[in-house]
Structures
1.
Amino acid sequence: MSLQIYDTLAGTKRPFTPLKPGHIGIYVCGMTVYDRCHLGHGRVLVAFDAIVRYLRYRGFDVHYVRNITDVDDKIFARASERGIPFTELTSQMIEAMHADEAALGCQSPDVEPRATDHVGLMIALIERLMTKGAAYQGDSGDVYFRVSAFTDYGKLNNRQLDDMLAGARVAVADDKESPADFVLWKRAKEGEASWESPFGAGRPGWHIECSAMSMDQLGESFDIHGGGPDLKFPHHENEIAQSEAATGCTFAHYWMHAGAVRVHDEKMSKSLGNFVTLEQLFKDVHPEVVRFFLLQSQYRSAITFTPDALKQAEVAYGRLVQALPDTVEAVDSDAMFQFQELMDDDFNTPRAIALMFDLCNVGTPTARAAMQSIGVILGLFQAGRDAFVTQSQALKAAHSGLTDQAIEQLLRDRQNARAAKDFARADEIRDQLASAGVVIEDSVDGTRWHRQ
RNA sequence: GGCGCGUUGGCAGAGUGGUUAUGCAGCGGAUUGCAAAUCCGUGGACAUCGGUUCGAUUCCGGUACGCGCCUCCA
């Protein structure tokens, strides 16, 4: 079977055919850098990282582009709240994002274009749209995209323009020809960063940056465009409109959207304030566990985050880590073939993980080697077994009431009690340790312990 | 109101027109002073009502409930 990808625009899985054989250009909408990343951002990072890793494993030469939105109302607002220049805020947040991304085991995109570095390209694209009659400047000085100039408007989200106008909730700027028209260029406001342009000083609207930068990196027509679930509308719809109106050719050939992360049956989002940041999660569990947790669901399905679910993932992943082979072995090629079949079906990472457990249960050297290979392709096992255990234990020690020294002392007391056949005392100590989250294992070569 | 998605065993989460998902938890056994860890074994599910079919959790239609988008949000 060949590679199938679910295309949001088609509403179904489609066999994947790259525009240029062997090569794939992919553009993913990245972060607006005004705050720390939460688990929803993490999901997009991990999903597309795993996808890109797999495509490369499959032999494609992948050019992975992910933008950084570093001009935006929220950025200006947050920077002025904190009394710092907006560029200082964005550079802090970009640094934090890169740290989170690295912790999750994601490879950096090949290119990470920033909006502020490409304003010239955006201006050029807006001028092109004006020349074609697809853009106009209102009395306020803002420049808008003329939605009526693009007959396919709504195709990504299956929407009719009339329906959208009827249900419009957004306050309509009175210099728009139509409420559905969206801004390409915002006139400069007092005290805010702005750029000179033929339409006057101002700054770009949100959508235009992705059209300009994706086409700059990947050409006017490219293979895959991805992003989070909340970008389908209006962001990606508007990207299609302005890009295709300008070029006259198909913009992205496959549209991929990750599913939402939920908390208590609500979408995790900044606006609802119900988000948990990656930074917070990394205090409780090893970042690889977060990655594993995310990959346990297919990238398009909704995930409900609960601390218990993360705990389950930790236990399950720990078992796989323990089964990593000590030596380099030949890989079970049959298993790798199965893996490819599973992943070729729209990147079915949950089944790939199930296969890893099957291999773990088989337990032979070649099976365990295959399990490791699969994990590595999915970006797991990056710390290695010993470091993973050490790092996980260190996290738990930070939450524990007992120091390592106290634990060692209790174990010596217990050992003495056992030697004296005072099992009641020995069990009492074991219970005490257990209630502090410390599990002990007696074996012929002594007693081992770990924090649970 | 418009568009779309979901409802699987205690929990997480795949998939299939007739045969074991997988993981966590549970239960039984081996092992252990007792445990833990490990190994072996094991019960348990497809929201609801109709239809198609020899046969549907799986296809089609209705219903209920839930969710997402329609405004910035990954």
2.
Amino acid sequence: MAVIAGAWAPNVIWHLRAGPRRFNELRLDIPPISAKVLSQRLRELEGRGVIRRTIQPTTPPSVEYSLTPLGTELLPALDAIVEVGHKLKARNRMDDHPQG
Amino acid sequence: MAVIAGAWAPNVIWHLRAGPRRFNELRLDIPPISAKVLSQRLRELEGRGVIRRTIQPTTPPSVEYSLTPLGTELLPALDAIVEVGHKLKARNRMDDHPQG
DNA sequence: CCGTATCCGTTTGGATACTG
DNA sequence: CAGTATCCAAACGGATACGG
């Protein structure tokens, strides 16, 4: 499970699902994340082979992060967990307010 | 993701996949887990609706933990994550030892 | 724009001892 | 057997300041 460990790691993976994103784009995608933590997570996920870091030779240069093929395999799993979470929340609301 | 948060939570879920287990059985299933943490995780997972706690009126009485239907839905997701982890480990070994 | 370094409060989990 | 209470060290993440 270490592969998705750390605060915001699943969010980072999730926001890369549609294609490459830059550092500051990810910061805006995941509002309350700090630069420090985003940087840490990106480096960890890169070290584990979940994401790839690419420096684009544009003017000005920019850095892009994207999922590796293996990283992409995590998406359905994260989806499934989130969906169970939603069902659980709905059920717990019903327990508290039986008319819901 | 809070649904699987906390140390050993995925292991607890995993070891309930084949049916109910008792407290001390889970302790032995997950060797380095402490009673305190196992107790905490069981209580959290129960509170979230992932597992169910049942007191068996046997002699002596025993306590059994089992997955709820929603908890069972987490198994394929955990499987998928673990499998990606295995592939990642294999790939990283190859990177370090190109003949592997 | 893309980060890193430092400080610092909070949370976590382990060890141990104890209870019904 | 099935936990709970307490103490403690380590890890974590946030805020801030700073560098390439």
